[in-house]
Specification:
This protein has 16 helices and no strands. The chain has helices spanning 6-19, 21-28, 32-49, 51-54, 58-76, 85-97, 101-111, 123-146, 154-171, 173-178, 186-191, 196-201, 206-227, 238-241, 247-254, 270-283.
Length: 286
């Protein structure tokens, strides 16, 4: 096993800072020793999440997913891994936290959906997708931070991850539409006599407003479910959940009169996010 170098560490940190800024800001509030454990994990997720944007053909994306899948296999089988900064950083963390292989495999497999232009079939399917991506990342982070104590947090990280993942999907609709992706569930569209083409066109109408309201309320419910059990979360595990504290900011902006999430990405300023995260740090909440 290769020990991560300063360059490996910096690669992971900068990748998270660029591609997953919410988690970057949240992790800055964690103790320094814990930050170094989280950067490679979040960098792995960022690498998987950006594959769609790096390739011009589905087959090339499949090759990249398979490369990461094979690399995870190599780590768990004790074989030499490719000299990639994320893999070098991830290997000792997997061993330290006794992280389950299936979590990484399921995350990769769920992200394969990103390569294709198929619409998300149902809200339940979207929940499953977010569970295997956003929620599992929180679960793994909690496992790294508090070990076996994280087993009791699966419901909390599950609900918080869905809430955060859904809020981020709604906040970044224009980028998805530009890539030809539709994460708005087909079953919700059909109930309003709409199709994915209406989403791609980026034209607001009453039906899309109704659907966006339904999705916002769904995210709010999941966040409320997670927060009901905040007293069960060890303080050391909170950095894994802090990104969920930003859900309120995104949902408020999405619900503003005149807001058009299909035309312009819904973002919160770094200052507002830092203030919110600092409040969560001070109050030991999320």
């Amino acid at each position: 096993m290769s020990s991560p170098s300063t360059q490996d560490h910096d690669y992971c940190l900068q990748l998270v800072r660029q591609l997953d800024n919410d988690r970057y800001l949240a992790t800055l509030l964690a103790p320094e020793a814990l930050r170094d454990l989280l950067w490679p994990l979040y960098a792995f997720d960022a690498e998987i999440a950006r594959i769609r944007g790096l390739v011009t053909e589905v087959s090339l994306g499949e090759i990249r997913y398979q490369w990461w899948r094979d690399s995870i296999d190599a780590i768990y089988e004790g074989r030499a891994v490719e000299p990639h900064p994320v893999l070098i950083g991830l290997e000792p963390i997997i061993e330290l936290g006794d992280l389950p292989k299936h979590a990484f495999v399921n995350l990769i497999e769920a992200r394969r959906f990103d390569l294709y232009d198929d619409p998300m079939p149902t809200l339940n399917d979207l929940e499953g997708y977010l569970g295997e991506t956003s929620s599992v990342l929180m679960q793994l982070a909690a496992r790294v931070l508090v070990g076996e104590d994280s087993f009791a947090l699966s419901d909390v990280t599950g609900a918080a991850g869905v809430a955060y993942g859904l809020a981020r999907l709604m906040a970044t609709l224009p980028a998805q539409c530009a890539r030809g992706q539709c994460f708005v569930p087909l079953d919700l569209l059909e109930k309003c006599d709409l199709t994915p083409a209406h989403v791609m066109a980026g034209r607001r109408d009453q039906g899309l407003d109704v659907i966006m309201s339904q999705l916002r309320h769904h995210a709010q419910r999941r966040l409320a479910e997670a927060r009901e059990r905040v007293s069960e979360v060890p303080a050391m595990a909170l950095p894994a959940l802090w990104p969920a504290s930003l859900v309120d900011l995104y949902l408020k902006r999405l619900a503003r009169p005149g807001s058009d999430p299909f035309k312009k990405a819904t973002e919160a300023s770094q200052l507002r996010r830092q203030i919110r995260l600092t409040k969560m740090w001070l109050t030991e909440s999320f």
